[in-house]
Specification:
Blueprint: E1 5-13, E2 16-21, E3 24-29, E4 42-46, E5 49-53, H1 56-71
Antiparallel strand pairs: 1-2, 1-4, 2-3, 4-5
Length: 83
């Protein structure tokens, strides 16, 4: 399974952008994004590429989903470390 993470564009330079993921900023490529984007837009990012702009009407639900995933109890889903 592949998972993209939502983040907010902070700045754009040529075909890359600095994207903020809950306080962590990374530079990502904009070559694959499905429509024009601007600073302030949210994008879905997978392996360093913005793959789509998140529509305003989908934003709250998308961010809530990722927030819930980050706080969910994952016991039993992750194999225990040896030792």
């Amino acid at each position: 399974m592949c998972l993209g993470a939502p983040g907010q564009i902070v700045e754009i330079t040529d075909s890359t952008a600095v994207v903020d993921f809950w306080g962590v900023r990374r530079r990502v490529a904009l070559d694959l994004v499905d429509e024009p984007v601007a600073a302030g837009d949210y994008v879905l990012v997978h392996v360093g590429f913005a793959i789509r702009r998140i529509a305003e009407e989908d934003l709250a639900e998308t961010l809530a989903f990722f927030e819930a995933m980050s706080t969910e109890d994952l016991e039993g889903l992750v194999p225990p470390k040896d030792g």
